């Protein structure tokens, strides 16, 4: 008989933030004019000015925490370019670009590729398999968690391991509302030499086998509720202590605070009309 590991709850003083560098894209051309996920409804009005205001507030939160925010120029005709997380995965300065499943977003990948080259990155690889970057890839500090089921090809996981030189764990998504890993799981603190990674996730977004994998790898994980997931509460950004999260995710916010995190709720209601939240708008530039 085995006994479950006791949950380790750390105080705020023990949660250590680390300074991050992010890439964002202003939603100057944001609208909902096609449907590529269950959140999108072109018949509902979109307030682009409000989306810009919400994005600007999100950017300001990062900067108030001491993080660096780089920006890429938005391109007319690419309304989802604001979701920068989908266009690159950067670990130790190596860049694996994106290849989108939806034709409507395919042009975004090359704009981001050019940004990386102009910013001085030299180790930039564009994928041969469909790969929606940090939409489906989550770095834990020791493992790259890789989602599949709706967007990223399973074969892209092996490609990511080869290009980025990090071990990859494949996770199967089974709920079309949570079509990307980053709307079903968030890395709250990365692994260190003395402490394992800490995550939060919505179990029902994953297959039964994947749920067992996550329980084995992260026994102390915070398990989000359906209500948390439904407002895109898991599409959050954490620096190890400060968690930027959709303000409607009240249960998850309470759990985060109980686990020693400082929570910064934000309004992403307009951006959510395309199925995006703080993480979708935020690519992390590591190394």
TrEMBL record:
<dbReference type="GO" id="GO:0019546">
    <property type="term" value="P:L-arginine deiminase pathway"/>
</dbReference>
<dbReference type="Pfam" id="PF19420">
    <property type="entry name" value="DDAH_eukar"/>
</dbReference>
<dbReference type="GO" id="GO:0016990">
    <property type="term" value="F:arginine deiminase activity"/>
</dbReference>
<protein>
    <submittedName>
        <fullName>Amidinotransferase</fullName>
    </submittedName>
</protein>
